[in-house]
Write a structure and sequence with these properties.
Layout: H1 2-18, E1 27-28, E2 35-39, H2 42-45, H3 48-57, E3 72-76, H4 83-86, E4 90-96, E5 101-106, E6 110-111, E7 114-120, H5 123-132, H6 134-153, H7 164-169, E8 171-172, E9 180-184, E10 188-194, E11 200-209, H8 213-216, H9 221-232, E12 242-244, E13 251-257, E14 260-271, E15 274-287, E16 292-301, H10 308-318, E17 322-323
Parallel strand pairs: 1-6, 2-3, 2-4, 4-7
Antiparallel strand pairs: 5-7, 8-17, 9-10, 10-11, 11-16, 12-14, 13-14, 14-15, 15-16
Helix pairs in contact: 3-5, 6-10
Amino acid sequence: MKKLGILLAIITLFISCDSGNQKKSYKEANGRINNLLVVMKNSEWAGDIGDELRKIIAEPVVGLPQPESQFEVTQVPMENFSSMFKATRSILNVGITGENSFLVGSEVYASPQKIITITGKNEEELIAEIQKNSQRIIEVFKSADLETVRRSILKKYWDPAQIETFKKQGFSITIPRTYRKVEDNGDFVWYRYHLNGGNSMELFAYSVPITSEDDENGNNIVAIRNAFGKKNIPGQVDDSYMITEEAYTPHIFDVEIDGKKAFETRGKWEVKGVYMAGPFLSYTVVDKPNNRLIVVEGLTFAPGINKRDYMFELEAILKTLKVN
């Protein structure tokens, strides 16, 4: 208990001092995206506190064909929190101390790095603190990982001003140079990244007129998507084309993209008449001044392979959407 209190006090000191020390140099953070280091007592990790944490950080990602957790988790007790672990990109410190608190630190031991410290006066109050901040925990680590992915994959990208659809439509996303053009006809753009074994990641962007309140309220997202697939994304046999999987209801969330009302849709796509399917993620932005919906979408085709990190990369790209 004493060791935990000392460490948390040190971390708090680092967090409070970090913002005023812009010239401090850091070692490069290690660890893959969607990986999380949990620092807490073994007994607490194995008990009710750990159970509550696992409900949050090990919750399955929405919209994937097979269950995959939000994070791959490694847990170490305080006495094993060595210099090697301190350089981890995402760290969650949890323990019982003399106060209830939730602190977020950046670049404490390495860069880029996020450290969340959650404390409680006793087990019951610590669990309550975890529950109260459950959404914030995911948001902090996910936002940091999205930014890390963008820094990595967008070092080289296609100039949006040279993409015909973006010039004509007046919006754009930043597409890495590793993706290759499939179609760019002024009405929609389609880029593809080839994975091993014939698998791929696909990016689409297009717009459609707003014709009703249902369009604005996100009630026609699936119908719009299916119409686009039928017209533009043919399958490998006659009369086959991409649709939203009929047996799987997509999850739709209210979000904001580029300061505008939008809908995030996570679900499964399939090719009508052909046994092909996989997960997709789309953002439908309500562009009222131009009386249209802007749709940007990413999907993965990779049978038998975990797809969480592929979809995470697509999310990082789609969220670069800018509307002129």
